[in-house]
Prior knowledge:
By secondary structure, this protein is mainly alpha-helical. It is built from 17 helices and no strands. The longest helix is centred in the first third of the chain and has 38 residues, at 2-39. It is globular and about 65 Å long. It starts with a helix and ends with a helix.
Amino acid sequence: MAEATTEAVIPGARRSRERRAYGFALSAVMLVILTATVAAPSPVYPLYQAEWSLGPGVLSLMFAIYVVGLLIVLITAGSLSDHIGRRPVILVAASLSLLALVILVLATGVGAVLVARVVQGAAMALGMGALGAALLDFAPPHGGRLAATMNGALPPFGLAVGSLLGGVFVQFEPDPTRLVFVVLSVVVVVLGAMAFFLPEARPRRPGALASLRPALSLPARVRPVFFAVLGCMLASWALAGLYLGMGATLVRGIFHAPQAVVGGLAIACVTGVGALTGMVGQRLDARHVMIAGAIALVVGPLLVLAAVQTGQLWLMFLGNVVGGIGFGGGFQGGLRLILAEAPEADRAGLLSTVYLISYFAFGAPCLLAGLLTPTLGLRTVVIGYGVFVSVLSAIALALQLARRGTRTVELEAVQDELAHS
């Protein structure tokens, strides 16, 4: 009798592990791909500019307008997956992402691109909250810190993948304004089909309609840490926004590098190094990682400003790498501190709030920079943008140094884990 019970329990436990592993892996891949779809158009923008005779303000608007869809959905439906489950929200996000890619494939003017970008913002808003929460739900035992790190590392990694992919297709393929979106559409369809089999790790809870009332989810126990790390997170995403929105134009206009793949690589240096920094710093104290990131966010933009003044492309890439360390450390260190305080039932809503503020910093300064470029010139705007990021990072660094004696939940968890290892 005992043997029969054991035989029944072991296969059940094995199936449970397999389902969790499937959910964890699929959530991670989908988070990367959804983010990549947002970055893929960046190397294409100069082609749109030449083909449709666009000014820099319109170019920045095409990048930043996704914030409209992002804000609307995050404020209303950011916590929806906490109520109706992760799978249905993820499927809707994949469907919206596919719709945006199809519009980009068929685009013949600015209007279609603007609509596609708004739809991409809505897809990202739904996907980031639900997929990020799913990563935490499906994390392996004692893997909460890994899942929190991946929540910070995967979106920048996706931005790197998308910008590199867009640059390669623009440089080497026969239909550079469309083919990259066709390829990503196929990938999204495949992942969407796989998401139909995504298990649910947490019970649904009532209140789905009430959760659609415009609001930001910020539990009281999270607020002190949230506001303490806010400056680093804003500076991190503002720096990334400079490259995603204006990186390809910057490489062509100031450094006179005509190859589109160079523009994609310049973007990937920031976002890819940011993702790598988060993974490498996974076992380090999150506050130390964030302080190191804040220092790099001060230094990196200053190196880019020196490159703009001297016209040295290699110096810009060095600044991008240092800035990427700042992007990864500043954002991911802060996110780990926030998630360590987060109640399990509020994960999706809290992640949506974090991403809303981060992506607003990602898009709004770039839009303003684009509007100012016709009047002030690209060089002046880039210098002003870099100074803004450095000053914001310096302020955030001072705040963190002032709080360095504070004990965090994550630090306690790390020390407990080491004590039992």
